[in-house]
Task: inverse folding
């Protein structure tokens, strides 16, 4: 019914007008949009699983143990053992490098710097997240890799007894180490941004109580800030891990792919699930594509588990609004 | 049992040690800033210097059609068209949808369903971009036999963009004071009109910021394009069918070549890409700074 | 133009917390009825049940009945929107819409309900601003943002906005608590004028204000923290302030608590 001008409204009956239908339609639409998010997540799993099934039928459980990728050969032979290992190794190395730096910048921004300086630094660190991964990859392979070779050679010569630093071929360069550095740069902003929020949630009283007891600034951080924010930081690190596990293009450009399981991080070679998909997709046949989708499903499952765990950890600390860097 | 030495001298020496620890920690934290910002400086300056040298007259106006491997000619025009179309498609899908989800979460969402949706929106932000590409490939490209296309790329990008839009819009809608909603409801304005005509306009600056950051983020995505747009050397303006290039895809393809002319084109493309993304990001931040709700 | 409200045995909850219990009160037309009492006594909650704004808060519900000239506002088939159009409300803090001009703020209730005729809107804007005593101060800058006005002007803008939809009843929830004394006096004068045309209900924590503007005063109180608020006593304002029946009322108005 058309709404009248108020003056035209006769001595009103309250039941004269129903405005409820628009509300019902609109709230229904909004709810439908919300449900669609759940549908998308489920659809990702369902469609990947559906397409991965033929590949799974070929290798079965050996899919997890084979260290080779010849899905279009006769007979086909493929598995993600080396890929999964490379994915974990590069991500863990990236975390080892990124976490201390990220926590340091977060502490600097929230605890040490004056507000304008802290804001500027936080803003610049956030800018790291805006650089596209293909640019990091290009920079990594053209700029970083040649400059890392002398450092890798030096470490190999002097502390080569550490298994990580060995190189059987005495070649260096497009190695897991280089890829991990690029990954570390890429996950640094997300870990830093979330840790920053976590540190900001520490009640001011805690800090001031510590300072009033005569604690130095570092002691206040250790006594009042870090213990309070432990689980939040764990969540931040896990979200960074999720990023690193799934990063594709930068790794695909930096690594020269191989299918070995090796801890020699200075040697060219290594591979990850995501980079392998990017590298092989263009030339993959029917089974090859299905095998790649199967590996993608594994990656999706791993990142899902990591992310869900991270969310639970972060949610338990009661910090809302931490989804994006 | 040793008694605690409470003499002032002892206190002073322990304090000296504590002060030293404090200084060392401060220096280490300062070092972290340096370590974090060095890569940013290196990536930006190197890309700018390499890219500006490599970016030629024809780069922004030519495609890669009939460019021989050793030729330094050719450009990224075709891929810029592709990127614009793909990002536009992604935005047209995920901005209204994301806004509706945010409205659901802030204005209507209560109880278990809303909590589940909120949780999975968070989880969705962690879906790797290559997985989004694989999903659209499995569902759209081969599942529905649509083939590679700019539209498929737009769909994959929207999977990545949607959670970003939802999260930022949710934060912005939460900043709108309840008093405004109440004032409108008390004027007998129905809830849906209150949301569309009072809440959304009030939050518009913040919403725009969030959308621009999301656009900036997906503009640089490469992995999903690989599996959905596939890549193409010529100008292809129809996003509905047929493989298409995209700027990140162009950079990736050129960077994998072993010829210097291709690497140069990759740098030129990287500079263009970074310029687009950074301009979007910086404008978004400036808008955010002016947002009266965030003050 | 104005109607009688009868609340019968109204109770209201926020989730499991009972904020108001068993309030029965008749509000006569063309009078100002003041609701007074210590903070937390449920007077604001009660006033929000009178135009179904209480149910806007998540988890809020009420029991009892409220009638407007014998029509049940919670009856089946009665839309909350229609109720709010008939019973307007002014809030504690001035809340003009920040994205709208002064003119659009006043016209908001009509425009958002589909009235588009420019002449009608202009006429209503002027009449409402005059009614709120704001016309002379803003008539030259109707296109400027409503947020640019002073606090007192903003509150009068909100009153203009509320009366633009021509309600029968005007509910005011501590309309002066965020204002300076001069603005408060202007609004109080305005309230005395408004009662010629509307049934006015005002919640106030300020007893002098209740004494100055109201014809009838209702005193709310609560037995203790966490207890629901109840109506203790209602009567002519002079009587309540000079010869209260209940000793709690007397204790409150003589300033012994609250």
Result:
């Amino acid at each position: 019914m058309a709404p009248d001008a108020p003056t035209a409204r006769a001595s009103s009956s309250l039941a004269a007008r129903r405005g409820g239908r628009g509300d019902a339609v609109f709230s229904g639409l909004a709810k439908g949009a919300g449900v669609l998010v759940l549908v998308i997540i489920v659809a990702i799993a369902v469609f990947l699983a559906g397409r991965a099934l033929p590949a799974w039928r070929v290798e079965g459980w050996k899919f997890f143990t084979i260290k080779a990728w010849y899905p279009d050969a006769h007979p086909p032979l493929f598995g993600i053992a080396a890929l999964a290992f490379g994915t974990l190794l590069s991500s863990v190395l990236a975390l080892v490098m990124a976490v201390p730096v990220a926590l340091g910048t977060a502490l600097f921004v929230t605890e040490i710097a004056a507000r304008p300086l802290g804001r500027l630094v936080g803003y610049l660190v956030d800018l790291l997240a805006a650089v596209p991964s293909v640019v990091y990859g290009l920079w990594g392979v053209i700029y970083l890799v040649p400059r890392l070779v002398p450092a890798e050679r030096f470490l190999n010569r002097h502390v080569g007894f550490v298994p990580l630093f060995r190189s059987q071929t005495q070649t260096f360069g497009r190695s897991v180490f280089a890829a991990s550095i690029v990954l570390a740069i890429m996950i640094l902003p997300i870990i830093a941004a979330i840790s920053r929020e976590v540190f900001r949630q520490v009640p001011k009283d805690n800090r001031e109580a510590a300072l009033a007891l005569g604690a130095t600034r570092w002691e206040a951080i250790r006594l009042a800030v870090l213990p309070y924010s432990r689980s939040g930081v764990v969540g931040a690190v896990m979200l960074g891990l999720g990023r690193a596990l799934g990063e594709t293009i930068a790794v695909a450009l930096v690594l020269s792919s191989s299918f070995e399981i090796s801890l020699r991080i200075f040697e060219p070679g290594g591979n990850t699930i995501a980079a392998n998909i990017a590298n092989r997709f263009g030339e993959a046949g029917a089974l090859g594509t299905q095998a790649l989708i199967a590996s993608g499903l594994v990656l999706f499952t791993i990142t899902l588990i990591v992310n869900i765990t991270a969310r639970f950890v972060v949610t338990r600390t009661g910090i809302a609004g931490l989804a994006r860097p | 049992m040793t008694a605690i030495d409470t003499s002032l001298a002892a206190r002073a020496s322990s304090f000296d040690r504590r002060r030293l620890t404090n200084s060392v920690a401060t220096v280490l934290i300062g070092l972290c800033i340096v370590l974090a910002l060095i890569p940013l400086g290196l990536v930006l300056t190197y890309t700018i210097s390499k890219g500006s040298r490599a970016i030629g007259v024809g780069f922004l106006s030519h495609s890669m059609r009939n460019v021989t491997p050793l030729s330094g000619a050719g450009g990224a025009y075709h891929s810029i068209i592709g990127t614009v179309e793909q990002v536009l498609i992604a935005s047209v899908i995920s901005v209204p949808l994301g806004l509706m989800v945010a409205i659901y979460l802030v204005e209507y969402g209560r109880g278990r369903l809303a909590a589940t949706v909120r949780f999975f929106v968070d989880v969705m932000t962690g879906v790797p971009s290559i997985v989004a590409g694989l999903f659209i490939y499995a569902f759209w490209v081969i599942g529905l036999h649509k083939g590679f296309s700019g539209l498929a790329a737009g769909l994959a990008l929207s999977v990545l963009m949607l959670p970003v839009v939802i999260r930022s819009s949710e934060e912005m809608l939460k900043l709108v004071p309840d008093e405004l909603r109440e004032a409108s409801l008390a004027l007998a304005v129905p809830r849906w009109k209150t949301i569309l005509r009072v809440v959304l306009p009030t939050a518009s600056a913040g919403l725009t910021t969030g959308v621009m950051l999301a656009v900036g983020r997906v503009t640089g995505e490469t992995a999903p394009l690989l599996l959905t747009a596939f890549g193409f050397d010529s100008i292809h303006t129809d996003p509905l069918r047929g493989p298409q290039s995209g700027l990140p895809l162009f950079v990736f393809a050129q960077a994998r070549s072993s010829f210097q002319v291709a690497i140069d084109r990759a740098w030129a493309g990287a500079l263009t890409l970074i310029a687009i993304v950074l301009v979007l990001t910086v404008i978004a931040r400036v808008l955010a700074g002016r947002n009266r709700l965030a003050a | 133009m104005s109607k009688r409200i009868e609340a019968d045995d109204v109770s209201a909850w926020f989730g499991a917390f009972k904020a108001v219990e068993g309030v029965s009160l008749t509000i006569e037309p063309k009078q100002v009825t003041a609701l007074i009492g210590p903070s937390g006594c449920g007077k604001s909650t009660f006033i929000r049940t009178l135009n179904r704004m209480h149910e806007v808060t998540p988890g809020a519900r009420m029991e009892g009945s409220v009638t407007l000239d014998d029509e049940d506002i919670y009856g089946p088939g009665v839309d909350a929107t229609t109720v709010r159009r008939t019973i307007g409300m002014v809030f504690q803090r001035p809340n003009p819409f920040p994205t709208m001009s002064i003119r659009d703020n006043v016209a908001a209730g009509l425009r958002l309900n589909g009235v588009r005729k420019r002449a009608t809107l202009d006429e209503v804007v002027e009449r409402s601003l005059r009614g709120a005593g704001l016309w002379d101060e803003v008539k030259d800058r109707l296109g400027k943002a409503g947020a640019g006005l002073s606090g007192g002007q903003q509150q009068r803008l909100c009153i203009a906005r509320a009366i633009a939809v021509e309600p029968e009843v005007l509910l005011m929830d501590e309309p002066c608590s965020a204002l300076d004394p001069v603005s408060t006096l202007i609004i109080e004068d305005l309230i005395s004028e408004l009662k010629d045309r509307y049934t006015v209900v005002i919640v106030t924590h300020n007893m002098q204000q209740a004494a100055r503007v109201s014809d009838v005063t209702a005193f709310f109180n609560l037995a203790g923290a966490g207890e629901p608020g109840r109506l203790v006593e209602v009567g002519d304002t002079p009587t309540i302030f000079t010869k209260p029946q209940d000793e709690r009322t007397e204790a409150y108005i003589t300033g012994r608590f609250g």
